[in-house]
Amino acid sequence: MDRENDRLRPERQPELQRPEPRVQRLGPRNEPEAAPPPPQPVQPPRPMAPKPVAPKPVAPEPVAPRPAKAFGTWGRLAAILLLVVAGGVLIGGSDEKVTPPPEPAAAASSPSVPNEIVVDLRDNATDAEIVGLGQSLGIELRYNSIHSVAAKLMVATINPGDRERILTALRANPLVEAAEPQFIYQLYQAPAPAAPVNRFVPNDPEYPRQWHLKMIGMEEAWAKTKGKGATVAVIDSGAGAMTTNGWIQGRDFNQTQFVKGYDFADNQDPSPDDNGHGTHVTGTIAESTDNGILGAGVAPEAQIMPLRVADAQGHLRMSAVADALHFAADHKANVANMSLGGPAPSQVLEKAMQYAFKKDVTLICAAGNEGKEGVGYPGKFKECIAVSAVGPGGLMAFYSTWGKEVDIAGPGGDPRQGEDAEVWQNTFMQGHCLAGPCGPRRDGFFPLVGTSMATPHVTGVAALLVSLGMTDPKEIRSQLRKSAKKYAPADHYGAGILDAAKAVENVQRSTKTNKLQIWLALGVAALLLTIGKSLQRKTDPMFFVHQIAIALAVGLFFPVVLEKLVGFGSWWNLAGHSVIVAIIFLMTPRLDRSGFWKAFAFTVGIVIHLLLDADSGRAPFQVFPQERILFWMYANVAVGLYFAASAYRSIRRSAMASA
User: What pTM did the predictor assign?
Assistant: First the structure.
């Protein structure tokens, strides 16, 4: 009990000793001493509260620094919004040509051979099926030429009164892909009344008269290439002429190289040009240059494949043109010139165009000489680069057809300004009498005008681009349009007037960029090989550097590989020529230090590739004008660098928090 009482009794605190008061005595006093005060009752001491104990200091928990606003959520949203806007600008400038739907009235009113039809059969049709099909309709189907067997391009002679009935029956047969009248096309020949620049000026005596070559900047273009290695099919009235000394080429074709062609007008080996149109067109493309004879050509070192389809009057069968396109594609032509056309849409001809286009033949077609709106066929097809004509001053020629299908304009001449404003080339022409052309054909330097003359200028420049390594028809069309001198309106001039100097310069710069990318690839490969040989395990110090180098190489060449897989002009190239994939890597949740540096190296590789493509003016997009592409490229560079910096700051904060 006593112990329990002791526990309950508050602990007594020791009394504090108070010092006695000091009394100062000034002198002796005789007063009696005062009686002491009565004693005060003793009170028990009050319990005192325990003395508070100060708590031990606790270290504050580290607080992660708040992210800067510029690198926060709003910044990322703004960067993504920039990409969306740039993508909309890019896609909105799509420059892919679309074939308009055929107009039935145009086909019904188009000239055709009344007693002949054209039939395109399935490629796997057998001879027995072909014979049976003809017998069921009472007609004899025959190949258009000896080169039509693989394409199964047939013609048949019929009774004109039975044409619609036979065509209807053929179109309903599963063996038949297309059946239509034998339309008549024609040659598009109009009636005739700053800083120092590296240049190549030929010594040909008539070259000063060729204003049309100077207009498109040929002297600057010739200093870089003359078309060596390109093969051009000229689908026209032939090349050369028959004289008293036999079949000869014009005297200013003495250095021009020809490859084997064919005469689809008469179904025989190559025949001479008995019209003069085809030789003149050939001269614009590849007349011998700097040989001291007559004039010059756009691509004098290109090879010419003469494919004759037109007769002496300039008329031609549509089936002959389709056959010639198959021949050009099968015999490795790079470019095909068609200074011809008509108002009738032809499914047979369209299929032949698609066949040649898929085999990398760039197709150049004249818009027409109707002097009104309405591009003729085949220029209206999306596979063709349609060319309108301008005079020496750059104004649209009065005879030139125009329309939304026009891709580009070229010099075709203006006869109203006199002969000096016409297009001059070496060809064979007859003299002029009161009743028209008469007398023997003479080999000389003659003027002609028309979209037929404008078209081979574009063809020649396309051959120059081929000689520099650009062979994709979509890419050639895109480059011709991007480099054109800007003129308006677009339905007259397309992208503008042909500029050979700018087109060649752009492609040559692009080629240099490609070489730089190859050297970068070799350098990275050598680095990887050198480091890889010394690596034994993942703990080696250089293992991390090796992985970073691999990520950089992948980022640098990912756009190239994707373009090879999907092709030029595919919108899938948006994934390669952008930082979208890089952003996905950088935004991966819980990205560690090693993963960040790999994603960062991949992003840097993509950014380097985009900058090189922007500098060279080359990108795998069919977009016009070029400024839309540059906006997309530079926007991606900025966004890529922003996200890389943002990810770096996040990794840095995580490292500081864990320290």
Answer: 0.79
